[in-house]
Amino acid sequence: MGEAEHVPAGINPNVPSVARMYDYYLGGRDNFAADREAAEKMIELGRRLGNDARAIALANRAFLGRAVRMLAEAGVRQFVDIGAGLPTQDNVHQVARRHGPGSRVVYVDNDPIVLTHARALLAREPDVLALEGDLKDPDAILDDPRVAGHLDLSRPYAVLLVAVLHFVPDDAEAGRIVARLRERLVPGGHLVLSHLYAGNATEDDVRAGRQVYANTPSGGLARRDHEQIAAFFDGLELVGPGVVPVADWTPDGKPDGSYDYVKSGILAGVGRVPE
Ligand SMILES: C[S@@+](CC[C@H](N)C(=O)[O-])C[C@H]1O[C@@H](n2cnc3c(N)ncnc32)[C@H](O)[C@@H]1O
């Protein structure tokens, strides 16, 4: 976006947004000074923990690409990407289509700026739908008549919760949301999930991170450990190495115990509903 550029109606450039901060980590231009300032605080915090926030964001994005490619190659043709973020390179519909012709995608995000950008980009993409929606109400997303008109949810589809669930700070609520999404999946359906992991952070560090995100409309940030993140896959068969550092997840990876969890920044996994 850049300072000199137009601010879309309904957007307050002085309030940092999760989507625009992430765009900044990824090296994008769709962000304002308030987003960059907030993101720099997180980058500095990561540095203190021995992490590189930008590298972690890029690794998360690369995981998303690997997971979607693996699913498309396995025959999955329907994707519901919740907390989709601003369009960037190799978006879900592009990867899915490249490896699974005819794939159909629904992008959902609660940030109106994401929808403004997505709709402009996707105006001539009949296989892609972008909707404003809140992860906190998964039934409202899946029961939206536009989703029913775009996908056949009685057939296998993949739900993507990539770097979004940590913006639901309440553990019980996060558990309820994911359980409901799992319940709605049919056999052969998949859950793709990545989640912030602050292995070696002190309580002060966590508080500092929360303070940065408290100023965004998301309002907070959850700290969850490996066990809590792995529990989001309850009842599913894990594909690949299990729930591992995001940079290490590959479809044919093995749970070999050599992963560096402490430095990983984000953990990721893919689960499948048994047939
Ligand atoms: C860190 S970005 C991740 C983008 C993309 N999934 C990726 O991993 O590359 C998180 C996205 O989730 C969105 N988000 C945060 N809370 C949400 C909620 N309750 N419902 C829907 N989207 C949400 C933000 O607006 C942002 O676009």
Q: Which sequence of SSEs, written as H and E, runs from N to C?
A: HHHEHEHEHHEHEHHEE
Total of domains: 1
Largest sheet: 7 strands, mixed
Radius of gyration: 18 Å
Helix content: 25-40%
Beta content:
15-25%
Query: CATH top level?
Result: Alpha Beta
Could you please describe the fold and organization of this structure?
The protein has 275 residues and is α/β, with parallel strands linked by helices. It has one domain: Rossmann fold, CATH 3.40.50.150. The protein is built from ten helices and seven strands. It has a seven-stranded mixed sheet. Strand 1, helix 4 and strand 2 form a beta-alpha-beta unit. Helix 1 packs across helix 2, helix 2 runs antiparallel to helix 9 and helix 3 packs parallel to helix 4. It is globular, with a radius of gyration of 18 Å. The mean pLDDT is 93. The chain binds S-adenosylmethionine. The site of S-adenosylmethionine (SAM) has 22 residues, from helix 1 and helix 3.
